[in-house]
Design goal:
With 1408 residues, this protein is an alpha+beta fold. The chain is built from 55 helices and 31 strands. The strands form nine sheets. It has a five-stranded mixed sheet, sandwiched between helices. The chain has a five-stranded mixed beta barrel with strand order 17-18-19-21-20. It has a five-stranded antiparallel sheet with strand order 22-23-24-25-26. The protein is globular and about 110 Å long. Residues 11-26, 41-54, 90-102, 170-182 have a biased composition (Acidic residues).
Amino acid sequence: MSMRDLISGEAELDDEENDESFDEETGEPRRKQKENGGMEDSSEEEEDDDDEEEAAKIRDGFIIDDDEDEVDASRGRRHRKERKKRSRDEEEAALDEEDLDLIGEANPEWERKTTSQPKLKRLKRGHRDDTETHHRGLDDIFSDDDEPEAARDYDRPFASRDHQRHDEFEGFIEEDELEDEDERQRLQEEKEVARPRQGGYVGNGEAVGLDKDALDDMEAIFGNGEDYDWALALEDEEEAREAGEHNLELKDVFEPSQLAEKLLTDEDNAIRWLDEPERFQLDRAPFKQLQLSEEQFKEEARWITTLLWPGKNLSADLSSVFTRAIGKVLEFFVVDEVEVPYVFQHRKDYLIHAKRTRSSHHSNGDGEYTVTAEKLLNLDDLWRILELDLKFRALVEKRNILEKTYDNLREVAKVRDRSVEDMLPDAATMEELQDIQDYIYFHYSAELKDMAASTGDSKEKRRPGGKHSVYERIRKSQCYALVKLYGITPDQLGKKALKKIDEHGRNYEIEDASQTPIDLADSLTSDEFRQGEEVLKAAREMFAEELFMHPRMRTHFRKNYYGAGVIHCKRTEKGLRKIDEQHPYYELKYLQNQTIMDIAGHPEIFLKMLKAEEEGLIDVRITLQDEASFRRNLVAEFRSQNYSDLADAWNDERKRVLDLAFGKLERLIAKGVKENMRTECQDAILKICREEYSRKLDQAPYKPHGMVLGTIPRVLSLSNGNGDMRDATCWAWVEEDGRVLESGKFNNLTRDEKSREEFVALVQRRRPDVIGISGFSVETHKLITGLRDLVEERNLRGPEFEDQSTGEDKRELLEVVVVNDEVARLYKDSKRAINDHPGIPSLGRYCVALAKYLQNPMKEYAALGKDITSLQFHPCQQLLPEDKLRRQLETAMVDMVNLCGVDINEAISDPYTAALLPYVCGLGPRKATSVLKTISQNGGIVNTRDELVGDPDTGKLPVVGPRVWNNCASFLSIEYDSSSPHSDYLDNTRVHPEDYELGRKMAADALELDEEDVKAEVDEGGPGAIVRKLVKDDEQEKVNDLILEEYAEQLERNYNQRKRATLETIRAELQQPYEELRRKFTKLSVDEIFTMLCGETKESLAEGMIVPANMRIVKDEFAIAKLDSGIEGRVELMDGSDKEMPLNRLFSSGQIVQAKIIELDRAAFTARLSLRETVLRIPYRKNNYRDPGSWDLIQERKDKEELREKDKATGRTQRVVKHPLFKPFNSTQAEEYLGSQAPGDAVIRPSSLGNDHLAVTWKVADGVYQHIDVVELDKENEFSVGRKLRIGNKYNYSDLDELIVDHVKSMAKKVDEMMQHEKFQTGSKSETEAWLNSYTKANPKRAAYSFCIDHRHPGYFLLCFKTGQDAPVKFWPVRIIPKAYELNKAPYPDMRALCNGFKMRISSTSRG
């Protein structure tokens, strides 16, 4: 469905003459206006009978007419407003130009209608809607008694100031014929004497028998009405105010989800126009109302230091300097509101600690100094500080809430708790704050409930039997006295466990009560607890709960778990069989005794553990290394030091309490530690992903021979795709400006001589700087080798360049570069690619993307947008939250874009460059679109950086606000034009405008100009004249003679500005503006090319593995085979068999055999194979050493024995079928194996139904697998495959190959056809239902249908349809069968027939 189906270009207007209108005050319906000869009579609001009766009453004197004047006037004004409002609504119902532009941006499919018919229709309808007019003379101009039904010609959309002139719509708009002569006469008079609303009287004086002097006299006496323009203006303002409430907005047309996707919601617009960096707005949105005090800023700097300092290898004496640097960075972020790239580029001096040491002395007392610099913070640290700033704000916000809660308790309930007062200011983590919150809400729940009730904030009632209500009952009963007799409070026990002493410097001593616990309990019975045992049990549970709730006890447990915790994995019953030795989770199945330090070194291991636990395969437990010792120590802290039966009784009771609390604390802390470890492990892998993405982005364009780094090459790119002999090799020629000037195909470029000659002619004609190549199969490697040989054979060379060593012109052989195609694979079939190059085939678009990757990898990655997460940066990145991953990848792109800068004028015309704008410092996707739009309104070009904040003198609108401009100015470059006096050289550099004066001062000093010379140059050429002179005279190198140290000292001494690094940047930029700082283009390694072309890694394909091989050529002494990945394998005679027999007597072409890889050459894509049975009997085992201390070998042996016993009973693993698709899998293992395969791939496996059955599992779609039961008939023996294979008592096949091709692959084609159909929805059943509801809501008179996958029934699709807005959504199952679809037991050969059959069934059903 396109947006054309959802909306039309103009809002359709209802025929209001057919609508029933309602009185605005009474709400009662008014009668429809009657037409009087085509002219609507709206002169009255009541029925005619009522009017006659009213007139009779007036005549008879029953009603005093004067009393109703105000009512009538009010009713008339109201009716006039209604009429004007209707007319206004009609005009405003059409979307204005700006709305249409926004809709076009949000929905590229939608096109604005250009036909003029609706306009004319609206004009004609406006004429019909005109109500009866009433003549008003000049005497009536100042009358307060307006005619209630008077309508003026100038209210009409097509009214003319001069009614005598020719009407442009004459003959087109039908004029109504008036039957009444008086009406005709009145209309004629109105045309002759019509008062325009503005501009005074402009009628023709001759028409009324008055000359000009008479008219002037009349105007002098009566005025021209302009004195009362203020009243008319007030009325216009009121009408405009009413109209503003009914403007048609985007949210009235589109679904909220559509607006959110295109960033067009009200919230997005607020972000777009607020003068604050977009990323800051998004990140700080939850903390808008939070203001940090100066003391909190200092606390934050210390808090961040404690988190970052352990990872920095700095000397201890730099700790305070490090804290100050963090405080300064926070000031830049929070006070100055500048982003990370700005701080890193323009405040670099605050990230470095420079130390001056005297190196020598002179007789005059002066000396030379050596400056040593220590880098305190790098770019990664800045992003980390920004992230921690948000966490600290969340911490402060929660702490403020708790402080407010406690203050209220202290003021209202007179609560005073020393524990809270001591712990709350020192809480440094969210866990500690949560502990304090739990403590407060446990101990003072009754007080908080009373306070909430008194303020009316109580939202819920606690259940009488709830957990907290039970403890409240205990606290209010007599047995709570027993709780206080345990000899120590929970707070004191917590301090004692944490080795804290009391206020007197002593350890806490425990004293026993004078009676045994049971005797005291007997004396404290009550109606609530009638027996001593009940009292003792209640007191025990209460004290255990208080221990569990106390923050100090939780802190004690947490510290020990982080310091001495170990992780164990225990397989579940489900994981026992599902996780075999080939399963990716086998490395976790018996893992044990993993310390937190072990996990820190392999964070992906822990994330795999948690994922396996979510799947129900293992249980992950965190325990203490020496739990028994920890428990003994805690019990010892809780015991009294007395020796007596009474002391023993109390100590036993204390141990029971501690046992209760221990279990609760253990579960809570272990859960918290597990979640914290999850976050830390995610952060560790996210950091790796960011570093990998930064490595990919940190590539300059491929550098042609003899050119400077950063020069864009001209590229000829080629690909043979899958390498099928029947497919052609596509190519594309891309100029340095990114234009695709030519593309085409070569037939069999490696063998066909004609194609080779055409290729040579193309190279000689186009003279490329480099040839790029890539593909999807091993056959591409043959093309690479063939092209390199052809280039060398025909001496194909690139363009001429000057040799720097000899000064002579030379040409080098063209380089054939294998290009990373991860971006090209995503691009080739995308909507963006089809729109960019509609006439180029998919493989040709793939070649275009390869060429552009060589020209600028960063632009290609940026153009992917949200699809960037589809690329792999870490083998376990699927275990990461996608929003976190996208955020980290965005920071890497922000770093690189701001390092390189963006030519703002190029971004206006080039979509690829425009895709970089959202990553510019201070901008984002919302502000980037606003920037481009405003620049277009300003004329489509930016001449100076200052123009970006607007220029009233030249009428330039502000592109960004001052704060955002401060962030982005130095990262938006403007090409220097020496011929333009307004062009500033510094606008094309990394120098920020705030430092332009420094750059100009350095240029003046380099040119050795005195103040008078500088003033003369500036007066003549403006502020940039000095730098322009430096460049014009080509004397930029003179800045190298400047001693910048003196400049820096002077700036710091006089202005308290640290600018040493900034001065170095200015010096470099004056010599080479925006020099390319990225590394050279990175060529793929052998292993990377191997994985890209065949899909195999070192883990998936290695020497020693046994793999299926297809015998292609079989000779006496050797054989050539091909592996599934396309790698060519060679079998020598000695490796063919244990028997010395010619290979062609043992094997035949086309035969599938099991082969062992003896050697693997990844560079040549070849392997040496062995088919000897003695070699094949040795299974492949990964070299995984299992440390007995970290691997449960005993449990592993037990489980293997148990599985062997079960397999003997079922016979599952005893059967082996000689077929390349056969795997000894169960259903879950088959699904996991197919998870990484393509849709349509299948696995043949043993069946649990017995040896006369086989099972086929095939991948329908991602996450959807169908299991097919195959019955074997006519079997030779128990283990052979039947000669006849039957599926569902309907489909019969002679062998497995025929079954796979004619059954599975045939259904896979039908699935692919279905999923490529325009009516297919990729979402779930509920998402498709929501789409249908949205569509019919937008199109209430239309029916809609679509297809989606039935995830609950693999092999089925759902036909979802809705016959109208109010109709329910219905679902019909569509079954996939070989070569057809089945709907209601009727087969349909293709999608067209299926859709037509559905429509016919619906039609027949509705008629029935």
